């Protein structure tokens, strides 16, 4: 019997939102390694982003959410927080909120550096979606 949604389903570099629950710790480590001085990563949805307290006005906050989720552009929302859009096949409102980044790093970072970091993070996360193969596969033989 072949189970399409089982962790043994075969190779796939297509991410689903469920992957961020199952492999969240590993994905968090990938993001932390890529962004210097970062301390914590929280995977968030649009609703979560609306609830986050920021230094931005309501209009600026809507624009920030639109940039992240619609245009897929990483943005800074606080002195120590960056929001990175994530690509999944089943949700278009998933992002990584990276907290604890040194304000000097944020101040000196360019838009291109953020975009390059995002590409690298997405690439590494997709490479690690092979984790599905780290599970032992048991076969029943009669």
Structure summary:
The protein contains six helices and four strands.
Description:
The protein has 142 residues and is of the alpha+beta class. It has a single domain, classed as 2-Layer Sandwich (Beta-Lactamase), CATH 3.30.450. The chain is built from six helices and four strands; from the N terminus they run ααβααβββαα. It starts with 16 loop residues before the first helix and ends in a 15-residue tail after the last helix.
**Low-confidence runs (pLDDT<50, min 5 residues)?**
131-142
Q: Please, what is the average pLDDT?
A: 81
Strand order of the largest sheet: 1-4-3-2
Distance between the termini: 15 Å
Structural class category: alpha+beta
Rg over CA atoms, rounded to whole Å, is 17 Å
What percentage of the residues does DSSP assign to strands (E)? 5-15%
CATH topology: Beta-Lactamase
Query: How many DSSP H or I helices?
Result: 6
Helix percentage range? 40-55%
CATH class designation: Alpha Beta
What's the total number of strands? 4
What is the CATH architecture term?
Answer: 2-Layer Sandwich
Shape: globular
What's the SSE pattern? HHEHHEEEHH
- Counted up, domains total 1
> Largest beta sheet, briefly?
4 strands, antiparallel
Note the main attributes of this structure:
single chain, 142 residues, Beta-Lactamase, four-stranded antiparallel beta sheet, 6 helices, 41% helix, disordered C terminus
List the helices and strands and how they pair.
Blueprint: H1 17-22, H2 24-34, E1 40-44, H3 46-51, H4 58-69, E2 75-78, E3 81-85, E4 95-99, H5 103-108, H6 111-127
Antiparallel strand pairs: 1-4, 2-3, 3-4
Helix pairs in contact: 2-6
């Amino acid at each position: 019997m072949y189970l399409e949604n089982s962790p043994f389903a075969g190779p796939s570099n297509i991410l689903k939102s469920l992957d961020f629950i199952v492999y969240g710790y590993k994905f968090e480590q990938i993001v932390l390694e890529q962004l210097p001085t970062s301390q914590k990563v929280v995977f968030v949805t649009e609703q979560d982003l609306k609830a986050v307290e920021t230094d931005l006005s309501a209009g600026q906050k809507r624009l920030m959410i639109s940039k992240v989720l619609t245009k897929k552009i990483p943005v800074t929302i606080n002195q120590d927080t960056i929001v990175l859009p994530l690509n999944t096949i089943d949700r278009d409102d998933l992002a990584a909120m990276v907290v604890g980044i040194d304000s000097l790093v944020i101040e000196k970072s360019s838009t291109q550096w953020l975009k390059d970091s995002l590409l690298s993070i997405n690439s590494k996360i997709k490479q690690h979606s092979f984790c599905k193969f780290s599970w032992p596969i048991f076969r029943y033989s009669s």
